[in-house]
Predict the 3D structure of the following.
Amino acid sequence: MLIIHDDDVLGHAPRGEVHRGEWIDSMESPARVHGILTELRRWDHADFQAPLADAAYQELGQIHCGQYLEFLRTAFERWREERNDGDAIPYVWPTRNNLNDHSETIQAVLGRYASDTATPIMEGTWRAAWASAKVAISAAESLNDGTRTAFGLTRPPGHHASRDVYGGYCFLNNAALATQRLLNKGFQRVGILDLDYHHGNGTQQIFWERGDVFFASLHADPDFEFPYYSGHSNETGANDGAGMNLNFPLPQGTPADTFLDCLQRAIDAMMAVDVRAIVVSLGLDTFAGDPLGTFSLSTEDFAAFGKPLATAGLPTLFLLEGGYATEELGRNLINVLQSFVCQMK
Ligand code: Q9C
Ligand code: ZN
């Protein structure tokens, strides 16, 4: 199985985040990637490749807004120029309080683009986010008749980022960028299956009014979990995208059988609208031992993901989203990929 990886993703290593009113070490750390790489290097099916060279990435401008990209590229430099010492984290939110705000201080601009305080920007953030996006798009590029599946080791994750908003540890929406590449390559309709513990609010928002992408998400009910304001079952899309968005908000403690039942229903729904490829936003924070999750999937349960996915018979791209149980992350990931490869024919 093709594994796309770039060491630049390790350059984003924030010092900490605000969590339940306290300052803690960042959950979304390079250690996640080290844990995964250790296991992938032991796996016989892994065929490592680097992303494509920088030149050919038109999807960035199709998914994200130009001013937002320019902001991400320069934010940390501007933050430092304004004599701030730590990582860039907003603490003013100008759009909420002043409709006529055009302030250009980095303090104001951060608050305009950020959706939370858990997503610091530091020296290596842009390079890492860009590398992660390249990994996703290159993995999508590799899918064709000969290559049925690939895994992109995307980090920082992407599914909470929308056209011009970052947050939830996400800056560029890797799954949306990969999906756009598949569409650009001629796949007529693409399904995104978001299996992260948290609702993929950024991805939902990006494709909300589009008929060429079906978005399905299984996640903790926003009535008790982040992002709190998005992911309810009555959010079904609008205009060309009406009926093309399907949410499964799930309760605390959700066990594997419930999760797998919804997984099958999500796949059935995308097959019914004739998607030609599937992009899996593979969060592993549904694991029972995850420090941010409340679901109860075991390491063995992840080996049950492959069968329903492979049975769909479509080109299938796996991209990493969340998952914070660093020790078990690699094992859980390989159980998903291995079970897919074994069932694929
Ligand atoms: N420290 C992903 O799994 N909120 N993002 C945690 C605040 C952020 C998770 C509580 C959760 C975001 C990709
Ligand atoms: Zn998550």
